[in-house]
Amino acid sequence: MTVDPRHCSFVTLCWLLSWLWSATAQSSSSSSSSSSSSSSSSSSGSRALDAGDATQAEILAQEWFEANSDANVTYLAVGVNSALSNVTGSDVICGEGVPSLQRRTPDELPNNGCPAIFTALNGSCTCLPGYSSSDTWEFFVTKRTSEDEYPLSMNASEVLPIDTIRTLLVPSTVVSISITGVGDEPQTISFVPQDVDLPGSDIPIAVNEADTSDATSITAVRLENIDMSSVVLNVGYFFPATTLNLTMRNCGLEKFGYDFFQGLNSIEYLDLSENKLATAYAGNTIGKTCTTQFCAVQILNLTGNVLTSFPSVVFNLDGLSELYIRNNNITDFNVSASVFSSISALRAYESDQPDESATCTGGTWQTAHNVTFCVLDASTATKDSSSSTSYLVYIAIIAGVIVVVLLIIFVWIKWGPRSDMERLSSSSKNDSTRASHMDETRREVNRALLEDPVIVTNRIEYKQLRLRKCISKGGVDITRLTTECYIESLVHRLINGDPGHK
Which ranges are annotated Basic and acidic residues under compositional bias (predicted)? Predict the structure, then answer.
């Protein structure tokens, strides 16, 4: 049988087309199946806790995460509340003791960097593994402005875009924390506690991860180029009590709230440079006694503030060895001989020079640490001291008078009006009781009179009580009862009746 070559070519072509179509369809089906499987897996992962298989610990962790993670706010944090320590290791964000960036975005997909229980809440996590083996945590942060996707991890040298710093649960191996804002101006980063539902204003920057009531090992805290102007006024117990070295540089500081430095009693190095402070805040005195939390300070840096007079009070710090006050607005470099002696004894000292037009009345120009001072002689210093003492005495007297007046007002408010009110209340109560008793007595008497047989027997009808029928006048203004008067009839009946009823 002879085979036509053209027929063979046609058959071969048909077979090739059929094979290509089959291969394409299979590839498309496989891709679709893979995509569907991936989508199903992702959906299943995001709804893993909807099937009722979540433990109580996981549910509590989710509730905590939602309550303490505002929508679309990026947090620098470490782990979750220590009260939720019973969650499994796989549910701890980035692992024990590892810092991370955490964010909850209800309207965006998560980055799948969080444990499943937080991913299910649209939580995104960026781990910072470079800190896990270091005893010094140094963060470079900037205010987050973009909504870009989160990477799964970042290294310690990268700038972290954040909004808020949550109280850090630090391992006992960490001894130093540094947070530096990156930008031309102090970065507006806020601070929040581990649990926003707890009452009070205490927001510690860091606590012990094992037990928040235990002391940390932190001895140094550095904050630079972070706007703390509001935080220092409204927050208490911010720094660990173990802190010895404290820096708050270029943080927009003007003054401090009463509780901000509470718990600090051992600071040896204090750097408050490049702020807007008009007061030294170290060595403030009553007489010659240090009265602040910074009485142990040895090195004090107030460079770049707005001091207008020489801060002599800092020399009430017994251990002061270095003082830096350059770039302030100090125009008066008049100091007493004792202060000049303390300046000379410092290991290091830096300040501006007095104005060229400055004069030294009542003293002599002397130099220490390459800076010229007007050292007042003993008589001038004594006069100034006496004037200052008199001023303090006047202030004390005025304050005492105010306290006495306030005490009198307090006593009067507490006891005076209350006693009057009590007397009035007691009198009113007695009057009310007496009136009530009289009313009851009157009602009993009325009932007795109404039921008395004599009165019942001899009762005069109301219609007969007409006095005009009982009274008539005779001659010479004589008044007598008429014969129509029932009262006269009653009298006769009483006189002539039963003696027992009279």
Answer: 431-441
